[in-house]
Amino acid sequence: MINEIILMNGYGIYVWSSFLFTFMCFGSLYIIIKAQLVREQSKFDEKFQTLNPEKKKTASAQETYKGILEINSTSKI
Amino acid sequence: MLKNFEPNKIFVITSKATKYVRGLFFIIVFIGLIEALILSPEDYLQSHSVRIMYVHVPSAWISLGIFSSIAILSFLILFFKNKPSILIAKSLAPSGLVFSIIALVTGSIWGKPTWGTWWAWDARITSMLILCLFYFIYIIAWRIYQDTEKVNKVTSFIALIGAVNLPIVKYSVDWWSTLHQPASVSVFEKTSIHHTMLIPLALMTAAFALFSLLIFLMKYNTELIKIKNKGLDRL
Questions:
Q1: pTM of the entire predicted model
Q2: Quick check: A33 and B229 CB within 8 A?
Q3: What's the CA gap between B195 and B202, in Å, rounded?
Q4: B98 near A25, Cβ under 8 Å?
Q5: Which tens digit of pLDDT belongs to each residue from B151-179?
Q6: What is the ipTM of this complex?
Q7: What number of other Cβ atoms are within 10 A of residue B6's Cβ?
Q8: What part of B 14-43 touches A (C-beta under 8 Å)?
Q9: Which of the ends of chain B has fewer CB neighbours closer than 10 A, N or C?
Q10: Residues B204/B167/B185/B27 CA torsion (nearest 10 deg)
Q11: Domain limits at B84?
C-alpha cells in the first residue's frame, strides 16, 4: 500500500516532484510576504515610538493607525 | 462598491481575516491532498501521472483569474481614476506570478511521461509563458518607477496589453492543433471528468484560491502599512 503510494507505477517521481515544487513555492512566497509585512510593522512601531505625545494622540485616533497598532501589539515575531 | 475597499475602512477586516483564511486553507488542502494523492483513481490511459492535474490545473485557472482581475482593476484605474483599485491590483500580482510559474513547471513535469518531452512550443504552453512574462514585467514595473502617477499608468497599460493574451490562453486548444486536450471542465456545458476526479480537483482549486487570498491579504496589509509609514513622516 505505502509502496504503491510512493512509487505510483513508476510515475511517483513525476507526481511527487510536482506536488513538492508547488508547496515549496507556496512556502517561499508565504515567507517572503510575511517577512515584508513584519518589516513594515517594525518600521511603523519604531517611527510611532519617536513621535511626540500630541502626534501620537492624533495618529491613534485614526482608524487605520489604530488597526496597525492593534496588530503590532499582538503579533510580534 | 469599490468605495468599500478604501484602505482606511478595510484594514481592520483584512488584518483579522488572514488567520481565518490560513486556518481554512490548511483544512481544505489537507482533505484535498488525501483525495488527490490517495483516494482518487488512476487514469486508464495516463495511470498515476494524472494526479499532477490536481496542482497543474488549479494553478493555471487561478493565474488566469488573477490576471483578469488585475486587467479589470487597471481599466478602472486608467479610465476612472479609481484609487482603491491600485492597491488591490498591486497586491494580487505576486500570487498570480507564482501560480503561473507552478502551472508551467508542473505542466512540464507532466509533459515528460505523457508526451515524452519536457517542453514543446505549442500554443497553450507558449501563451502561458507569455502570461508569466507579463506578470514578471508588471511586478518589475512597480519596482522601477518611483513616481506614483507614472507607475499607475505604466502598470495599468502592461495589464491591459497582457489581457489580450488571456483569450489566447483559454481558447488556444480550440483555435489551433495543440498537444493539450480541449477543456474538460466547463461552467456552461456538461463536464467530461468523472466525479471521483472532479472532487479532488474542486478541493485543490478551493485550497489554492484560499492561498492566493491569504497572500493577497498579507500583501495588501503590507502596502497599507507602507503608506501609513510615509504618513507618520508627514505628521
A1: 0.90
A2: no
A3: 10
A4: yes
A5: 999 999 999 999 999 999 998 888 877 77
A6: 0.91
A7: 13
A8: 15, 33, 37-38, 42
A9: N
A10: 10
A11: 20-40+51-177+194-234
